Protein backbone atom coordinates (compact mmCIF):
# COMPACT_ATOMS: atom_id res chain seq x y z
CA UNK A 1 0.00 0.00 0.00
CA UNK A 2 1.90 3.03 -1.22
CA UNK A 3 1.87 6.31 0.66
CA UNK A 4 0.91 9.51 -1.15
CA UNK A 5 3.06 12.43 -0.04
CA UNK A 6 1.84 15.99 0.61
CA UNK A 7 3.22 17.20 -2.72
CA UNK A 8 0.49 15.22 -4.48
CA UNK A 9 -2.24 16.71 -2.28
CA UNK A 10 -1.06 20.23 -3.05
CA UNK A 11 -0.69 19.48 -6.75
CA UNK A 12 -4.17 18.01 -6.85
CA UNK A 13 -5.88 21.13 -5.47
CA UNK A 14 -3.69 23.64 -7.36
CA UNK A 15 -4.47 23.64 -11.08
CA UNK A 16 -1.35 25.77 -11.67
CA UNK A 17 1.00 23.23 -10.05
CA UNK A 18 3.24 21.53 -12.61
CA UNK A 19 2.28 18.14 -11.14
CA UNK A 20 -1.48 18.85 -11.11
CA UNK A 21 -2.22 16.59 -14.08
CA UNK A 22 -0.24 13.67 -12.66
CA UNK A 23 -1.77 14.08 -9.19
CA UNK A 24 -5.29 14.32 -10.64
CA UNK A 25 -4.76 11.21 -12.77
CA UNK A 26 -3.33 9.31 -9.80
CA UNK A 27 -6.17 10.21 -7.44
CA UNK A 28 -8.75 9.46 -10.13
CA UNK A 29 -7.28 5.97 -10.50
CA UNK A 30 -7.31 5.51 -6.73
CA UNK A 31 -10.88 6.72 -6.24
CA UNK A 32 -12.14 4.59 -9.12
CA UNK A 33 -10.53 1.53 -7.52
CA UNK A 34 -8.01 0.90 -10.30
CA UNK A 35 -5.11 1.44 -7.89
CA UNK A 36 -5.79 -0.20 -4.55
CA UNK A 37 -4.56 0.21 -0.99
CA UNK A 38 -3.21 3.74 -1.38
CA UNK A 39 -2.95 5.75 1.80
CA UNK A 40 -2.09 9.27 2.81
CA UNK A 41 0.12 9.59 5.86
CA UNK A 42 -1.66 11.47 8.65
CA UNK A 43 1.51 13.56 8.82
CA UNK A 44 0.88 14.65 5.21
CA UNK A 45 -2.55 15.95 6.18
CA UNK A 46 -0.97 17.83 9.08
CA UNK A 47 1.68 19.34 6.82
CA UNK A 48 -0.98 20.24 4.24
CA UNK A 49 -3.02 22.11 6.87
CA UNK A 50 0.05 23.95 8.16
CA UNK A 51 1.11 24.98 4.65
CA UNK A 52 -2.36 26.34 3.92
CA UNK A 53 -2.45 28.21 7.25
CA UNK A 54 0.93 29.77 6.47
CA UNK A 55 -0.48 30.99 3.15
CA UNK A 56 -3.41 32.70 4.87
CA UNK A 57 -6.21 30.21 4.22
CA UNK A 58 -8.87 30.22 6.91
CA UNK A 59 -9.83 27.23 9.02
CA UNK A 60 -13.04 26.58 7.10
CA UNK A 61 -11.22 26.31 3.76
CA UNK A 62 -8.61 23.99 5.24
CA UNK A 63 -11.27 21.86 6.93
CA UNK A 64 -13.23 21.57 3.67
CA UNK A 65 -10.13 20.35 1.83
CA UNK A 66 -9.39 17.79 4.54
CA UNK A 67 -12.98 16.55 4.51
CA UNK A 68 -12.80 16.25 0.72
CA UNK A 69 -9.66 14.10 0.97
CA UNK A 70 -11.15 12.01 3.78
CA UNK A 71 -14.26 11.32 1.71
CA UNK A 72 -12.39 10.20 -1.40
CA UNK A 73 -13.34 6.57 -2.07
CA UNK A 74 -10.53 4.05 -1.71
CA UNK A 75 -8.04 6.59 -0.32
CA UNK A 76 -6.95 5.39 3.10
CA UNK A 77 -5.06 7.05 5.90
CA UNK A 78 -1.90 5.81 7.58
CA UNK A 79 -1.82 6.88 11.24
CA UNK A 80 0.86 8.89 12.96
CA UNK A 81 2.14 6.82 15.87
CA UNK A 82 4.94 6.88 18.41
CA UNK A 83 6.69 4.21 16.33
CA UNK A 84 6.54 6.51 13.28
CA UNK A 85 7.96 9.38 15.36
CA UNK A 86 10.84 7.23 16.59
CA UNK A 87 11.63 5.94 13.09
CA UNK A 88 11.38 9.49 11.70
CA UNK A 89 13.88 10.73 14.28
CA UNK A 90 16.37 8.10 13.14
CA UNK A 91 15.78 9.03 9.49
CA UNK A 92 16.38 12.73 10.20
CA UNK A 93 19.70 11.92 11.79
CA UNK A 94 20.80 9.41 9.15
CA UNK A 95 19.57 11.17 6.00
CA UNK A 96 19.24 14.82 7.08
CA UNK A 97 15.56 14.92 6.10
CA UNK A 98 13.14 17.68 7.01
CA UNK A 99 10.78 16.98 9.88
CA UNK A 100 7.78 16.22 7.67
CA UNK A 101 9.75 14.30 5.02
CA UNK A 102 11.05 12.07 7.81
CA UNK A 103 7.50 11.44 9.05
CA UNK A 104 6.21 10.55 5.57
CA UNK A 105 9.21 8.32 4.88
CA UNK A 106 8.92 6.56 8.23
CA UNK A 107 5.23 5.90 7.60
CA UNK A 108 5.99 4.42 4.18
CA UNK A 109 8.85 2.30 5.53
CA UNK A 110 6.61 0.87 8.24
CA UNK A 111 3.99 -0.14 5.68
CA UNK A 112 5.29 -1.46 2.36
CA UNK A 113 8.30 0.80 1.77
CA UNK A 114 6.71 2.65 -1.19
CA UNK A 115 6.01 6.38 -1.46
CA UNK A 116 4.51 8.29 -4.38
CA UNK A 117 6.23 11.66 -4.56
CA UNK A 118 8.34 14.01 -6.65
CA UNK A 119 10.47 14.98 -3.63
CA UNK A 120 14.08 14.09 -4.41
CA UNK A 121 15.01 13.75 -0.72
CA UNK A 122 13.45 10.29 -0.55
CA UNK A 123 15.88 8.91 -3.12
CA UNK A 124 18.62 8.95 -0.46
CA UNK A 125 16.80 6.23 1.53
CA UNK A 126 17.88 2.97 -0.08
CA UNK A 127 15.12 0.79 1.40
CA UNK A 128 12.38 3.17 0.22
CA UNK A 129 10.87 2.79 -3.25
CA UNK A 130 10.04 6.23 -4.65
CA UNK A 131 7.46 6.24 -7.41
CA UNK A 132 7.05 9.22 -9.69
CA UNK A 133 3.33 10.06 -9.88
CA UNK A 134 3.46 10.42 -13.66
CA UNK A 135 4.08 6.67 -14.03
CA UNK A 136 2.22 5.45 -10.93
CA UNK A 137 -0.89 4.70 -12.98
CA UNK A 138 1.02 2.31 -15.25
CA UNK A 139 2.46 0.10 -12.49
CA UNK A 140 1.07 -3.33 -11.64
CA UNK A 141 0.72 -2.72 -7.90
CA UNK A 142 0.13 -6.41 -7.25
CA UNK A 143 3.83 -6.90 -7.96
CA UNK A 144 5.60 -5.58 -4.89
CA UNK A 145 9.01 -5.76 -6.59
CA UNK A 146 8.91 -2.54 -8.58
CA UNK A 147 11.36 -2.47 -11.50
CA UNK A 148 14.11 0.16 -11.42
CA UNK A 149 12.69 1.73 -14.58
CA UNK A 150 9.54 2.71 -12.67
CA UNK A 151 11.37 4.36 -9.82
CA UNK A 152 11.72 8.09 -9.79
CA UNK A 153 14.79 9.11 -11.79
Overview of this protein structure:
The chain has 153 residues and is α/β, with parallel strands linked by helices. It has helices at residues 6-13, 20-31, 42-54, 59-70, 82-95, 99-110, 133-136; strands spanning 3-4, 38-41, 75-78, 114-116, 129-131. α1 (6-13) packs across α2 (20-31). It is built from seven helices and five strands. Strands 3-2-1-4-5 form a five-stranded parallel β-sheet. It has one domain: 5'-nuclease (Rossmann fold, 3-Layer(aba) Sandwich), CATH 3.40.50. Helix content is 49%, strand content 10%. The relative contact order is 0.19.
Low-pLDDT windows of residues: 143-153
Largest sheet: 5 strands, parallel
Overall geometric form: globular
CATH domain fold name: Rossmann fold
Q: Give the mean pLDDT.
A: 90
Note the gap between the termini.
Answer: 21 Å
**How many beta-strand runs?**
5
- Give the DSSP E fraction (strand runs of 2 or more residues): 5-15%
Instruction: Trace the largest sheet across and list its strands.
Output: 3-2-1-4-5
> Any idea what the CATH architecture is?
3-Layer(aba) Sandwich
Helix content: 40-55%
SS class: alpha/beta
By DSSP (H or I, 4+ residues per run), the number of helices equals: 7
